[in-house]
User: Which sequence fits this backbone?
């Protein structure tokens, strides 16, 4: 039914599209975060890969329409892979706001002991006095900060937002290493 050469070319086109669209997704996020050099390099590699794939598929698509399917599936899959990769590497910074009526001192102290910089504000909510904890942190350490907060108050109200430009973030000193850093540390 299908020639083996067309099938192998289709798989190569699919993989190349996944790669270049993943780069495109990461490049777009880098642009939003103001990472000019990274966006430049990713853009160069992305468009080079795209031109190679397009120039390979376009002349053959009339004779092998299956290539168009591989091309399209590679594009769609690349979007998903790009989002998953970005979530994994968590580029940039976040603002974490915790609003609580209780345990604010204990939370702030636990976060500070872990190396985070915490600023507190007193305010008034619908049921009385509240405290807001304001923390600017690297996105990759957000899960750890939230686990500290939830260990003290499991139902704590919090919200996160992307921080555009940050002048200085103190890196937590007691955050457990993850990923390849954890493996290298164990050796």
Assistant:
């Amino acid at each position: 039914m299908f020639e083996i050469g067309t099938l192998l070319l289709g798989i190569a086109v699919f993989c190349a599209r996944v790669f270049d669209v993943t780069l495109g997704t990461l490049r777009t996020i880098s642009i939003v975060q103001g990472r000019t050099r990274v966006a430049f390099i990713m853009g160069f590699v992305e468009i080079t890969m795209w031109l190679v794939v397009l120039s390979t598929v376009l002349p053959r698509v009339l004779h092998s329409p299956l290539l168009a399917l591989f091309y399209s599936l590679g594009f769609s899959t690349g979007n998903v892979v790009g989002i998953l990769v970005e979530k994994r590497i968590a580029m940039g910074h976040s603002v974490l706001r915790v609003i609580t009526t209780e345990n604010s001192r204990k939370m702030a102290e636990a976060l500070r002991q872990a190396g985070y910089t915490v600023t507190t504000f007193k305010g008034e909510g619908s049921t009385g006095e509240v405290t807001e904890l304001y923390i600017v942190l690297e996105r990759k350490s957000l899960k750890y900060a939230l686990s500290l907060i939830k260990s003290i108050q499991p139902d704590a109200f919090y919200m996160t937002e992307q921080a555009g430009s940050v002048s200085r973030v103190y890196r937590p000193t007691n955050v457990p290493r993850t990923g390849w850093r954890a493996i290298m540390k164990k050796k």
Q: What stands out?
A: DSSP finds six helices and four strands in the chain.
